[in-house]
Design brief:
Layout (H helix, E strand, L loop, with lengths): L27 E13 L5 E13 L4 E13 L2 E11 L1
Antiparallel strand pairs: 1-2, 2-3, 3-4
Length: about 90
Amino acid sequence: MDKIEEPVTFNLAQVEIINPKPPEPALKIHARANVGLTGDRGNTETDNLYLDGEFIARTEKNRYSVGAEVKREKSEGERTAKSALGYQY
C-alpha cells in the first residue's frame, strides 16, 4: 500500500459532492411467485392448488408486465374448480 508523503490540501469551495449516489440502473426487474397447497382428510377429502406469479421489467420510459394465476380444486376425487389466467401489458 502506497503512503502519501505529504498532506494534500485543497480549497473547500472546489468540493462539489461527497459520496454521490450511484446511477440508477437502466433496467429494473421485479419478480414474484406464490404457491399454495392444502389437503383436507377426514369425512371428506379436498385438495386445493393455487399458483401465481408476475414479472415486471421497467426502463425509464416503458414498463412490461407478464403474469399468470392457476387454481385447481378436487373434492372426493372429482375436480370441483379449475381456472387459469394469464396477462401481459
